Amino acid sequence: MNKRLRKNIRLLGMIVCISLFTGCSNKKTDIASQTQQETLTVEENQSNKENTIGESLIAQVVNYEEDDYYTSWENTVAATIELKEDQISFEGNGVKVEESTLTIEKAGTYVISGTLADGSIIVDAADKAAVRLVLNGVDINCTTTAPVYVKQAGKVVLSLEEGTTNRFTDGESYILEDASSDEPNATIFSKDDLTINGKGSLEVIANYNNAITSKDTLKLMEGTLQIEAVDDGVMGKDAVIVKTGNVQITAKGDGIKATNDTDETKGFVAIEDGNFNIVAGADGIQAKTNVYIAEGTYTVETGGESANAVKKQEQNQVAGPMGKGQTKVSTTATQVEDTTATTTTENTDESTSYKGIKGSKAIYISGGTFTLNTADDSIHSNDTIAISGGDMTLTSGDDGIHADTQLNIGEVKLTITKSYEGLESSEINITSGEINVMASDDGVNISGGNDASAINGRPGQNSFANTEDGKLTISGGTLFVDASGDGLDANGSIEMSGGTVVVNGPTNDGNGALDYDGSFNITGGVFIAAGSAGMAQVPSSSSTQPSIAMTYSANKQAGEMIHLADSNGNALLTFAPTKAYRSVVISIPEIKTGESYSFYTGGSVAGNATNGLYETTAAYTPEGEAVSFTPTDIVTYLSESGVTTGNSGFGPGGNGGGGRGEKPDKGAATQDGTTPPAIPDESNRPALPEGTMPSEGTMKQGGEGMTPPEKPTGEKGANGTPPEKPSTEGNLDTTTAPSENSSAQ
Predict the structure, then answer these.
(1) Biased composition, Low complexity: where in the chain (predicted)?
(2) Quick check: 452 pLDDT over 80?
(3) Is there a contact between 536 and 739 (Cβ–Cβ < 8 Å)?
(4) What is the reported pTM?
């Protein structure tokens, strides 16, 4: 890797995030050319929206050499080796045979075929050229060490001859030259660069530890790999690079991993294409720095799937759901030593991680089909995630996608069928795509929100780079959220300038379909949020696109229609919430101040709908009288009897902290973590005139002695698991109205 490339790699994350997710041009550009122009300004990069993340960045970090690609060996000078159960015969130079051990001592090409009942191949070539082993139908079992052990070589290439099946298996214990080094510790183990190419197949059964390990870079160029391992499946210290291939891995540890954490230009996984089926006891694909994925098909299960979500295993130090952490026996000729697989030098922090795809620094995905079913986060980074394409179905025991610092989502089809929280980061930018989120707590969570979900609040206990000034930005695409907690929860602000957002929020009054601390400015797009009313909020009065907020006197049932029409009866919006609701907030470009509208509840409709949102051409039949209104402010408050009064009591963009009507802090809790704090005392608060609505962010005092509802207990259980949600029947409070920018919960 050249010095200039090393220098530019540090710029890639920032440039990709800016160029992909803040611009508006449809012209594809080349990241490689951008990174060479170190004087590019932010504004110049904002016009580059649709870079092909995977291919461009992989080209930056991967260098394919000529001998990485398969070439025919038949017209080359090659030694031939035949394995005969307990004997080895050969023709050519550079080979030494001792009983059932074959040692390759020189660079060159060696064609190997046959079976060894208990033997091994050792590569010990001092010269820096490549050693190529053509596997032409090989079956080697070794009970005491690695069947393939590369001690030294410039590079080793395993070529899988087309039409052949090759198999390597090891025993449950090794006799090591130096037990303190624990090497070799894989069925195929190399201290140097290792490449696997060819269109044949390779089966690796690891009974001792890992299946395939390279202490440098491991490249999988093509072929079919079937791997079973008691610990990790495929591991490269500096990098794991996949050109293409069919890879099936069943591992009690990690599926695919790169482990170098001392060099920011290494420790990455880069996959251009291929078909992957991974069942892992720990992480599916994980890298100490970055994960790059351009294309491919990925079916990944981790930790016993989402039903076996993490249960704070750090408290009792138990092994993983699939048994990772089993006893591994290393022996010398005179001593037996018991160690734990999860405490090897390369794998000290993975025993409690069950993520689908994990990159400690960043994850870049530009395409592919993903079906991930994980006990922990399906996709996770301790820093940044950028997704610009692909088709994803995620089923998670914790977060669907989590990035500590920034999550950028572009042209992807993303379905999160199950999660604790769907999308979570300190900053989330959505520019396009089709996103569907199902969450048992918050649908979209910024900086942990206000429910302590990032601190001792759930199994994963994810942390954030910033917990105060997080931001959700939506400029395009479609986002459908079904959340039992908050729908959109921002411990910071929300900006929406385009796209469509539909939230089917909570049915309990301890959460809200919309929840933010700073401001929520809407300048464009379609926003609909339906849910309970106890913690309901509305967009900020500093928005330029008007909103309406309807609060009902009693619960409306799931599926009960909402319809908005203009003064001529033209349909502007028809929506059927999927759950019971009492508060509805709507902001669409068609709503203008000074014009008249009709708001209907109930009725029937004939037409096509997506997640409850009907096309405007759908034929709507009303039931009952409409609520007629003419907006005069950015936020118009409605009840079943018409327009009600609202005041901007906390000022535009204000927090309202400590002000009257402040909502209880969901983030705080009693010591046992089960009882939320009490509602602030409002006994000295003056009564409101009868028939008026409270100011934005205040609790309504409907009559003498009426107090706000208590927040449901058990929001965060003492054992760190999500609470059981209260019944939807009769649980939606009738004493509150949506507030703009009350202390967001």
Answers:
(1) 329-353
(2) no
(3) yes
(4) 0.79
